[in-house]
Amino acid sequence: MWESDIIPAFEKSHPGIKVEYAPIDTNDYNAAIQSQIDGGTGPDVIMCRPFDVNRSWIDKGYFEPLDGLDAIGSFPESALAAWEGDDGTPYCVPVASVLAGFYYNTAIFDELGLDIPQTQDEFVEVLDAIKEDGTYAPLALGSADGWQLAYNMLYQVGPNAWKGEEGRLGLIDGSKKLTDPEFVEGFEVFDSFKDYLPNGYESISYEDMTQLFTLGQAAILPDGSWQITQVTSTGLDVGVFGAPPAEEGGQRYQQEMADMAFGLNAAGKNKEAATEFVEWLGTSEFQQLYVNKLPGFFSMGSEPVKYDNALAQDFADLKEGAELTSRLALDRLSAGQPPLDDEIWRVAQLMFNSGLSAEEATAELQKGLDSWYTPAP
Amino acid sequence: MIRTPARYRLLAMFVLPALVVYVAFAVYPLLSSVFLSFFESSGQTSAFVGVANYVDLFTNPTTSARFWNALGNNVEFFLIHLLVELPVGLLMAALLTSGRLRRSVGLYRTLLFVPATLSVVIVGFIWRLIINPLWGVVDFPLLGLESTALPTISLMSVWQYIGIPMIFLYTALLAIPDDVIEASRIDGAGAWTAFWRIKFPLIAPQFGLIVILTYIWTFNGFDIVYALNGSAPGPNYSTDILGTFFYRSFFGSSGQVADLDLGATVASVIFLLILVTTAAYFWVVQRRLKSYEL
Q1: Which of A370, B70, B166, B286 has the fewest CB neighbours in a 10 Å radius?
Q2: Over pLDDT 90: what percentage of chain B?
Q3: Residues A191-223: pLDDT tens digits?
């Protein structure tokens, strides 16, 4: 996509600059970029990781500060936050975010006469109805991949209890603890879904879940927007809803995770051309092109963007009226040992696999966090 | 006969290229990694801190818990290889050389060795499908429970690499001259006695070497766990071995920031573990194993 559509579009409007695309596998990305830059062979433009990993790269001096750039001005502060240094200096131009939601198979919902749940209790009723019918797995969810439990379940249903950013930022500034009732409640809501998982869920991986859903054997799939193309690949009619609030008409919280941004290598060889490229990434021309080439990724810019893919538009609509919140543990809380995010993957698995309670889980997490984290005064 | 100085020159000519490559790509990185473990770097600066990183690794409750857990898992990983891969490999080698398979020896030899040539990613993928509770043959979450995950992964690895000890021992058994066996048969030894009293003592040095190679190999193990369970191998770190612990420390994981000093420290500890045990093994055991001239 970069090579066939986006880069040609850029090169057409900027004659004289040639962009070379060098993809790296996700799992190896941090390692590869760090060794490339430390070895002096880094690219001119670097894809940034959100929050802590990026902050450590900023500290190491990998990036050129971008304060003066026009592109930076076209994003709201919330979009820039994931890639700023400790003093608030921007280092990357945001490209896209991903959302989390519950995909559902509309045919199964029609067959069983189910409606999209508006409250947490209704959600449980829907799941009960599917379980009782017995033809389909209520939730396509397994616990083999801890990240999946955290990112697509806990960080999706939990924010309704801990009030999204209020809870997340409270943890960071130290005014809240994971053992506070609202967090315990968030973990409890997460735990209540474990009764609706397919048999042998302990070793069902992320790929298995997607497959279970696309084969039409499961009714609901908690997942990220990046899966839009895959879940509809078998021709299923798929809709999406967000985590419902506890009470009818209550404030909804929608997970939006900063996913991709680009920064300039401070030691890059073609800085001028690279600057022009990242400036272009801030334009709505690029954003419109990007989000429609890659359904499931959403523009973070201030200007509205239209989505050609209907499901992507549905996803974008989830943001309406909802308070947006980032994944709980990736900002500052995972920069030490043990990293809170990894710990949450672990205890989420323990809750589902070995019956660890919400109180025990949050107490253990808070203990781990207390062992190294001190909130900035 | 070549005169001595010329001989040394010749010897140097043959050895030097390999030595240069070896020093540049094996010795130097190893030493610099050990070197790195004595420093604390932050940003662009780094300061000498002596053994502080080691103290931290062993006393920090978080990292030391992870380290001992990984070490324990690694011992289990090794023991399963030792107790399953080697005896079964030996049995296979014995069967292949027993003369009972007649013309199909080549076929079996190939079939048993094929998995060793596969990529570990493929092996992991195939087995993951076979034991998948949704569409596989077992209705039990083998990889998902803390109690069964590591043995399952170990056995996958045993399945893959069983061809290696088999081929080693097979060639060693082939090298035993037939007249020795014939002589034993005339003296009244059955197949069982002939194997344990004559053949096995003759291949004991090779067997010992395979034991230590398996040790080195399992303590350097990383790939199958990483391929199946990623860099924070669960559930609850029950499949975390030293290799994945090192990877996570050095390169970071999705949410974990890389810590080069800690990573280098872990690497040095693994290196030491392997070095000391291997040296002790050669000193204590391998020296005493008799080699016979046949």
Answers
A1: A370
A2: 49
A3: 999 999 998 999 898 999 999 999 999 999 999
Q: Of chain B residues 66-125, which have a CB less than 8 A from chain A? A: none
Q: What is the crossing angle of helices A358-370 and A340-354, to 10°?
A: 160
> Using a CB-CB distance cutoff of 8 angstroms, which residues of chain B are in contact with residue A338?
62
| pLDDT tens profile B166-205 | 999 999 999 998 888 889 889 888 888 888 988 999 999 8
**Residue A100 belongs to what H/E stretch?**
strand A92-105
Residue from the list B42, B133, B256 with its beta carbon closest to the beta carbon of A204: B133
Residues 192-231 of A with CB under 8 A from B: 198-205, 208, 211-212
**β-bridge partners, B46:** B41
Rounded Cα distance between B172 and B185, Å, is: 20
The residue type found at B200 is: F
How much is the pLDDT for B54? 94
- Our CA-based measurement puts residue B216 at a distance from the nearest CA of chain A, in whole angstroms, of 25
Q: Decide if A17 contacts A277 (C-beta within 8 A).
A: yes
Three-class secondary structure of residue B184 per DSSP: helix
Amino acid identity of B50?
Answer: G
- Both tokens of A119, joined, read 């409250």
What is the ipTM score, two decimals? 0.78
Taking the whole predicted model, whether its pTM rises above 0.90 is answered as no
